[in-house]
From TrEMBL:
Classification via SMART domains: Pept_C1, SO
Family the UniProt entry places it in: Belongs to the peptidase C1 family.
Protein name per its UniProtKB record: SMB domain-containing protein
Organism annotation: Daphnia pulex
Record-linked InterPro entries: Papain-like_cys_pep_sf, Pept_asp_AS, Pept_his_AS, Peptidase_C1A, Peptidase_C1A_C, Somatomedin_B_dom
Length: 442
């Protein structure tokens, strides 16, 4: 019998809790002031540090945010800083430390062995502790999403993402030119409220790298519902895209967005109810079930308007052709252009770079923490459905409101907020959209 013991190491040495925000910056801050500490909130009770300010007032030590000076807890509260975490190299077993890759015979009778490996895990408790200990600095909190526990980071990058980096000629696409008055753009916009009855629900792609298919089908469905004024609110089939758009695509191992939109333009897809998603459970992509010249009638697809939850019985003849899309177009990588496009026409599709810490996101406005900086990242595609400003901190933070495809138990009910206007994690670098095709084509 061979017992495989896997252990991994987190290389960021931070102290626990809020004491860790400026732990590496020694010096007298609060201790160097004439009036060392201040009661309540006193914005002038501050000291310059790293191009910003740290504070010595009671307000800095609130539970949801902390911008206290490094010596605040020691000088003002009398709390000594904790000892740093001890970095462990290798695997520790029965009082002895073994280097990575070392195989040891533990019991000579049963010849039981363990193998110590250094595979990074998708959920690292040390990373959660480090991020939450610096949540004021990062602006968000981390947690253990149970579906990710026990999985390798490599599994997450391959099967929880799935969007291949755009090719050079695709990145060379010229964005459309928009004419609008920037002063008319609202400070905040929430598509979940504005399009309450038409916006697609958050789905879970499971363990299949299909974000390319999920985001494409969802954006196409959102825009069809919005631009048809609620007459065609149909979830579109991700499985159809995944199984049938196979030229130059890699199924559950990833796909290109431009090729997904090209397939939507040339062939179209059926509705989700007609061709349900199963690859998230199986991890496999079966043979395409939709003939190239098929339509909703030949596929015997029943259309049920999701907004009304009843068969579509409007005066318009029932749709027979598949759901297609005109050619996709690119939005300029400027926040105002992206905001105007969403406001006027509906959610947009964005490609983003996912770092290991993003899998741990629980809430707040995401910004890459810099932890696990030596580990790989991957590409993901998501739907931007709105924007706003988080004013819960001393310095307000602009954000995008984004729908993910990891189910509602992840993040903020399946959504996340990410810093807006700074191209955080490449979220504004490559943004696509397409008009809805309301024509009945066979």
């Amino acid at each position: 019998m061979e017992l495989v013991w896997r252990c991994s190491i987190f290389l960021i040495l931070l102290t626990a809790g809020a004491l860790a925000q400026f732990e590496d910056i020694a010096g007298d801050y609060c201790g160097g002031r004439i009036q060392r500490c201040c009661d309540g909130r006193i914005d002038s009770c501050a000291i310059p540090i790293l191009g910003t300010l740290c504070y010595c007032d009671q307000f800095c030590n609130r539970t949801d945010s902390s911008d206290c000076c490094p010596d605040y807890w020691n000088v003002c509260l009398g709390i000594k800083p904790p000892s740093p975490l001890i970095q462990q190299h290798g695997c520790y077993h029965e009082g002895q430390n073994y280097p990575y890759g070392h195989t040891v015979q533990i019991n000579c009778n049963n010849r039981t062995e363990f193998l110590c490996e250094a595979d990074a895990c998708l959920v690292e408790p040390e990373a959660i502790q480090a991020i939450n200990g610096n949540s004021a600095q990062f602006g968000w909190t981390a947690g253990n999403h149970s579906d990710f526990w026990g999985r390798k980071l490599e599994d997450g990058l391959v099967y929880r993402l799935g969007t291949l980096e755009p090719e050079k000629f695709v990145l060379a696409m010229h964005p459309i030119k928009q004419k609008y008055d920037r002063n008319t753009l609202p400070m905040s916009f929430d598509g979940r409220i504005e399009w309450r009855d038409t916006l697609q629900d958050v789905r879970d792609q499971g363990w299949c790298g299909a974000s390319w298919a999920f985001s494409t089908a969802a954006v196409a469905a959102d825009r069809l519902a919005i631009q048809s004024r609620g007459h065609e609110v149909y979830p579109l089939s991700m499985q159809n895209l995944l199984a049938c758009n196979n030229r130059g695509q890699q199924g559950c191992n990833g796909g290109h967005l431009d090729r997904a939109w090209n397939y939507m333009r040339r062939f179209g897809v059926v509705n989700e109810e007609c061709y349900p998603y199963i690859s998230g459970r199986t991890g496999q992509v079966e043979k395409c079930k939709v003939p190239r010249r098929g339509n909703l009638a030949t596929m015997k697809c029943q259309l049920v308007n999701a907004a009304e939850r009843k068969s579509d019985r409007s005066d318009k003849p029932p749709r027979k052709g598949l759901f297609r899309s005109p050619p996709a177009y690119r939005i300029a990588p400027f926040e105002d252009d992206i905001m105007n496009e969403i406001l006027q026409h509906g959610p947009v599709q964005a490609t983003m770079r996912v770092h290991p810490d993003f899998f741990l996101y629980r809430g707040g406005v995401y910004r890459y923490s810099g932890t696990n900086s030596q580990q790989r990242s991957g590409y993901h595609s998501v739907r931007i459905v709105g924007w706003g400003v988080d004013s819960s901190k001393r310095n307000p933070t602009k954000y995008w409101l984004v729908a993910n495809s990891w189910g509602r138990l992840w993040g903020e009910d399946g959504y996340f907020r990410i810093v807006r206007g700074e191209n955080e994690s490449d979220i504004e670098k490559f943004v696509l959209a397409a008009w809805a095709d309301q024509e009945d084509e066979e």
